[in-house]
DNA sequence: CGGCAAATACTG
DNA sequence: CAGTAT
DNA sequence: GCCG
């Protein structure tokens, strides 16, 4: 019977024994808990949205200048109340712009080239300015460079010692390459987030395909190795450096350039030099080809299996592939892990943007049906970052009337299940609605005073139920839906929160 | 040289 | 509580 | 592995 189980995993359910498949389905019992008997009725828009008269944008002048503006939150709520775009002037807390580097010949002007309406941000810019000044000299002590050992020799730790008196370690001198310690003048201008010491990755723009993607891919391999071996510190170190590299808009030309990026130091710079010279990084290749890591990566790719469990499967249980998991461990898997195994291959398939859009549209449609047209939805994640193919679908739903988002996640999942779009619910979180109900019952005042920032969400398995029966066997009495199963995250956000606010501002300004 | 992302929720 | 996920 |  073991070989029969093999068949399940290769995805040939249809020609396999029906009995087997059913037993699997039974064992899984993954159908989401929400019963479809109570179909949520659509709230036929009792409350139509007041359409505001088309009017001149009172803030045109403000938005046409290059200054960054910070407004009081009340501007938004008041605008909402009046259903029109209020002038921002009375709400303006601060406006300013990023100044250029002090030494920059392009800006002979004074340093105080920003207009502070309040004193708050001053210190930040002062700090940035100070940093920039201190940074003008080369971070590398060129004179005292130590010649370090050959890079590709397999010794990874020895060459990377930090020179005692400089913070930055010297880079390996590679005479055969232009990817060397360059002159201090040939570095490209650092993007603002480097110069200004921007602290959070979310403040940098992200690119779908950064200029240094190939190098980043190598670092990702090392990071994965750190992950699988339980080296959490290493994971974090590589994560931060990769994040900085991914936001870096220039093609790297010298290793020294990397030292200027936050989270990047000698190790990463040396890896870059190796990459630039040989087109690959030995440590990354080794990690990728490592047999143990290959097995553990296989398990790690099961949804619901993390590094710890992947290692356990391999080293404690002694399993070596998915068949072993099914044969010897099926009953010990959690419910979501069984789902993860069942759709192992499909979850790894990339999702084309067009399909992401289709899925989002379907979800939006159901949300509108369940509430009203005030529903706003926004696809985030890989799609929003412009990726051609996405690993999953992340969609945020919101509504200006917060009461309309109450329990909506439950309703949406039920509705989509009933129409067979959602095949499984991996996880559903209703904490926010739970708490919201309590406070709402007490405070009849609607919007204010809640401190929770968690979001209702559902992580589900999605499959397009509309399929064309296989052409090979059109008379099949029970044709099979071969549309791939997708991972979809539906997130409910209070309208007030950032993402919702962002696109509400966009639409307001367009009106 | 020591410390190390943040917050939150579900599952078993 | 440990593990996993967002 | 980086940072203070």
TrEMBL record:
Family: Belongs to the DNA polymerase type-X family.
Lineage: Eukaryota, Fungi, Dikarya, Ascomycota, Pezizomycotina
Cofactor requirement: Mn(2+)
Compartments in which it is found: Nucleus
Enzyme class, broadest EC rank: transferase
Species of provenance: Aureobasidium pullulans
Protein name: DNA polymerase
One of the GO BP terms on file: double-strand break repair via nonhomologous end joining
Reactions accelerated catalytically: DNA(n) + a 2'-deoxyribonucleoside 5'-triphosphate = DNA(n+1) + diphosphate
Composition skew (Basic and acidic residues), residue ranges: 9-29
Location (main, coarse): nucleus
